[in-house]
Amino acid sequence: MKEKEFLILIDQHSGILYKVSRMYMDSESDQEDLRQDIIFQLWKSIDKFKGDSQFSSWMYRVAINTSITYFKKEKRRPDKSELNSNFEVVDSDDSWEKESQLAHFYTAVKTLNKIEKAIILLFIEGYSHKEIAKQLGLSSGNTRVKLNRTKQKIKDLIKTQGYEF
Predict the structure, then answer these.
(1) How far apart are CA 43 and CA 39, in angstroms?
(2) What is the pLDDT, as a whole number, of residue 74?
(3) Are 154 and 105 in contact (CB under 8 A)?
(4) Which domains does the chain have, with CATH numbers?
(5) Residue 41: C-alpha distances to residues 48, 53, 59, 68, 163 (Å)
(6) In contact, 107 and 64? CB cutoff 8 Å
(7) What are the mean pLDDT values of the chain's consecutive 10-residue runs (165 residues total)?
């Protein structure tokens, strides 16, 4: 694959980069660093993409694996700052209520373990239990159980933040 084709695909699926980086990193600068690292890993491994699945599915897999590795590396840094409560506005037309909901959601998601984050991210993107299971190497039944538990965990975490549904 040529560089130009690669960059077009990255641009078409840039939302994946933003969603994954936001779930795994707190600060905007760490999110940007992670996005760059994901793009680098995608470029390094583009020859391994055989087209057996959609590019976006493969991109998710690489992005999540890169994020997990990056997150572990970041946790070892002694200067890791506290959770940053400044959340960027995704769409300037969104209401304050939607921004508040997103802030509570992302704060809760940041407390999940790496598998729970991956499951909820893929679920939000519309992947089926079977597709999520395949992406993460889990059984479909196990994925269904983990997804339900993760949803409940997020709900409970958001309630502890004082947000009412």
Answers:
(1) 6
(2) 58
(3) yes
(4) 1-79 (1.10.1740.10), 95-165 (1.10.10.10)
(5) 11, 18, 10, 13, 37
(6) no
(7) 87 91 85 93 90 87 85 52 44 60 83 90 86 89 93 90 70
Identify which of 5, 35, 3 has the alpha carbon closest to the alpha carbon of residue 18: 35
Contact 155, 165 (CB under 8 A): yes
The reported pLDDT for the residue numbered 73 is 65
The token duo for 1 is 């694959």
H-only helix segments in the chain:
3-12, 14-24, 28-44, 55-75, 96-109, 114-124, 129-136, 140-160
